[in-house]
Amino acid sequence: MRVRQLSVAAVVAALGVSLAACADDRPSGPVAPAAPAGPTAPVAPVSAELPVSPVLANAPSTPATPSTPATPATKGTRPCTAADLRATVAAGSVVSAADRPAVERIELANRSAATCTMQGFPGVDLVSDGTTWSLPRSRSTQARQVTLPPGGTAYVLIDYQPYRGRGQRGQSEFKVTSMVLTPPNDTGSLTVHWEGANPQDHRTTTQPDTQVRPVTATR
Question: Model's pTM, two decimal places?
């Protein structure tokens, strides 16, 4: 029984020492409140932390306004094509004295809704039963630009020696069945009927007297 009493006394003594140590660690006076933390630095926005491109930094916030309004482009005039034109031949040829050239007049009308221009010589082929005679250009007439508004007209003249019938020495007839006209600077063509007397066949002559003049404006 004595041993148990000693053990209890030892435990009590140990607890006393531990409580005394805890008492020594506690402050003797009132505990001062903890100092408040300093103001929190504002968090910088993400965009401020990213590098800014010099181009974007200097760009204006609104698009620049031109000092003067833009001038609309002037609508140009296009060349006349075969699809724009209607070709007719004036009835009858202009024939002067005997053995003098005659003239076939081809009228060209702009049937399109737009203004177009022509300058130069058209291609003119006389056709006779499958034989084609491509007429040379006149060297005595200068080509000028012709402007055709919708409904406007121009003309082409063909000079030729008319066939005056049998019995004329050195004459042979080129019997024209149709005529094909190609406008200047175009690949399309128009087929028209020949209205005058048939020309003399001078396809092989070195001094051609059957020739085509350039497109001319109607006055």
Answer: 0.63
